[in-house]
């Protein structure tokens, strides 16, 4: 049970136990970027925004050693290390740090909380989205907040990087929704990206993925407390507790958690499973203890989450096609970076065939691309928990010299 | 779109168009069996019950040519042919009929609506469950109805068969939840079953499957109109329309539909998919047309369904272990029939590894067992729509002479 708890913690960045920092851990702190007016991909605008970020290592004088790590759906910029007041280790601590695959002795590694981050109520997350106060009304935006796309995540990141004097990335690397951002970076701003790593990713949402993602939205949309997104007046005094459609939110997170995993890992975890559970056999209202476990974990993960933010994240993923135009090849043709795709072999959420399709499309278009599958029993989550198995590959890829076309 | 509509129709036994019978179709009619007191596996009792059944071919004088076909979660006893007043063809019409794999010139084929059938409001289904009137109170049972297991389905079927003079089955064959019943028949009543065919099945629910199935229950449990199962007072005058937690019911059926399919089939169906849908890009309340399509299909399928019945069906599957005791081998060791497992190669709901495990366990226990995978692009649904690819195998298996141990 320890492994799964730490996996779930990594996913939600909430540790059940607020562990004190251990002597050897890298310490990291959160920064905040304050932005002014921002125009979204769909043409709509907001007057200001803010996002959190954190970094590791030093930016060199030429500002050419920066690696951007873009985060996944339920994640944040907490990639590695631990905050001074404790909490969980960052989700890719195994590969980001001094001497590690993404070597912070060599690279300046930065990660930025996305807009509409899943956890606006997490004290370690700074984001702007439907739960934020619209300065023009003094009320939460709710669904007045513009629909957000992966391109918008990228454009916010670009603004933050430019504020730090970074005009070009040694690499952009991301897992899952982070991989969408990484690829979008490389095709939207080809002259700013030298290397792109897509972990457990895809280049375009297909109808199957659209409909699968929608299963995460329906529980929220069907919850009467969602109230067409206008539940913020229900806000209570304890600002760390989210409000609104809690049942729908919990159900949504139950599904996200389960779909990110694989039968092998779940079944190994519950090797003491009693199929013919007495309580479940006698009483239609009773459930197997494993159901209670999943509900409980989802409730914990819902603590800092906002339902509208989840809806917006789902939408951003549903609308994704690299380059953000009708035709995928047209987008991919813009890429100049060398690409590395690392899907998880047993991924049930984003099947490896999706990454393979992106990789093969790039090769067909005459681009540099590599492909390797991550082995493991965790399914989609192997992109997080089994990433260390690809540490050498990653290190080598990042060290490869590039012949720039310009 | 035609194929998917017919697949969805087959699944729910509701045809969008009420087609008239075509000259060559087998005509079939529904019978009803009235039972008295029934004691469930968990020891609880009801005073009476009724279930529908239909049959094909003639029972011979020795009453030894009977084949029982046990139905899947969303199905009924409508296996083949068409009702005189129209409706859809039975789901396995491709393999059940005169001269077909399950040859009704040779065998007496019978199928029986299960207890707690998903569609108590379907005029072609007769079932007993939470939506039925408890004769002792004059009210619907709701959650007072005993928890039902796969063994209870089998025991009801046994009673119906005995009423027709059938003491022994040439074969019992079922897909998905039907395969659970087929296997349970063979281990609960080993001296009554000569051949057992498990299509897209398993021998025991594992923790992963338990939790996946629970995702179908949560939408109903979270719907305030579910009201702890006591929504029958909301019943309206139109008895063909189901009542209660309609939003939860629709969402549950959306998920069931999707999980039974495979990306290849869904993506082929929507080859005109526009990822960057304009409405979805502009308005958080808009959805891609494919989402609307899935919602619409689920609403149609919800028409005759009952939410509590779905909860009971989920529970029956969650509690399944062949033989209904703690240890699977102990159950499987009882089997005397020859077994044939036919999982679908691309099944994402019940992975072929589950059927393979059952098959290999039987071989280890010295039993006769065969294993073949159904190829196709439909995932779990290949057990229905691609079954004809295994017609010859099935025909041969049914014709094999058996040396009975007794």
Automatic annotation (TrEMBL), chains A, B:
Signal peptide: 1-23
A biological process from GO: homoserine metabolic process
Keyword 4Fe-4S: no
Xref: Gene3D superfamilies: 1.10.1740.110, alpha/beta hydrolase
Chief place where the protein resides: cytoplasm
Top enzyme category: transferase
Chain ranges of the AB hydrolase-1 domain: 145-335
Domain of life assignment: Bacteria
Gene Ontology cellular-component annotations: cytoplasm
Keyword Amino-acid biosynthesis: yes
Subcellular location: Cytoplasm
UniProt-annotated catalytic positions: 176 (nucleophile), 347, 380
One annotated GO molecular function: homoserine O-acetyltransferase activity
The EC number(s) this enzyme carries: 2.3.1.-
Keywords: Acyltransferase, Amino-acid biosynthesis, Cytoplasm, Signal, Transferase
PANTHER family with a match to the protein in the record: HOMOSERINE O-ACETYLTRANSFERASE
Record family assignment: Belongs to the AB hydrolase superfamily. MetX family.
Subunit organization: Homodimer.
Protein name (database record): Probable acyltransferase
């Amino acid at each position: 049970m320890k492994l799964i708890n730490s996996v779930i913690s990594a996913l939600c960045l909430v540790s059940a136990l607020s562990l004190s920092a251990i002597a050897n851990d890298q310490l990291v702190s959160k920064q905040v970027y304050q932005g002014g007016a921002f125009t979204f991909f769909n043409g709509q605008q907001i007057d200001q925004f803010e996002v959190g970020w954190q970094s590791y290592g030093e930016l060199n004088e030429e500002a050419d050693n920066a690696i951007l790590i873009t985060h996944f759906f339920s994640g944040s910029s907490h990639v590695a290390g631990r905050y001074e007041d404790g909490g969980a280790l960052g989700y890719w601590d195994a590969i980001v740090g001094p001497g590690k695959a993404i070597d912070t002795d060599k690279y300046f590694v930065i990660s930025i909380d996305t807009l509409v981050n899943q956890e606006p109520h997490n004290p370690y997350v700074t984001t702007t989205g439907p739960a934020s106060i619209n300065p023009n009304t003094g009320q939460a935006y709710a669904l007045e907040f513009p629909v957000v796309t992966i391109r918008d995540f990228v454009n916010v990141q670009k603004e933050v990087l430019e504020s730090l004097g970074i005009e070009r990335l040694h690499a952009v690397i991301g897992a899952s929704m982070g991989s969408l951002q990484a690829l979008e970076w490389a095709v939207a701003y080809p002259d700013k990206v030298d290397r792109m790593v897509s972990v457990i990713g895809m280049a375009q949402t297909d109808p199957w993925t659209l409909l699968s993602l929608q299963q995460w939205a329906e529980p929220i949309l069907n919850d009467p407390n969602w109230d067409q997104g206008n539940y913020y007046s229900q806000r209570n005094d304890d600002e760390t507790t989210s409000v609104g459609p809690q049942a729908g939110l919990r159900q949504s997170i139950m599904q996200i958690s389960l779909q990110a995993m694989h039968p092998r890992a779940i079944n190994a975890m519950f090797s003491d499973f009693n199929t013919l559970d007495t309580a479940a056999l006698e009483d239609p209202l009773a459930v197997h203890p494993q159901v209670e476990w999943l509900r409980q974990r989802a409730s914990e993960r819902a603590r800092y989450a906002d339902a509208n933010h989840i809806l917006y994240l789902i939408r951003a993923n549903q609308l994704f096609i690299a380059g953000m135009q009708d035709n995928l090849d047209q987008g991919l043709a813009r890429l100049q970076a060398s690409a590395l795709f690392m899907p998880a072999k047993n991924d049930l959420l984003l099947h490896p065939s999706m990454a393979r399709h992106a990789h093969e499309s790039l090769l067909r278009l005459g681009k540099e691309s590599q492909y390797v599958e991550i082995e493991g029993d965790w399914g989609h989550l192997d992109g997080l928990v089994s990433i260390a198995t690809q540490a050498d590959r990653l290190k080598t890829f990042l060290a490869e010299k590039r012949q720039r076309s310009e």
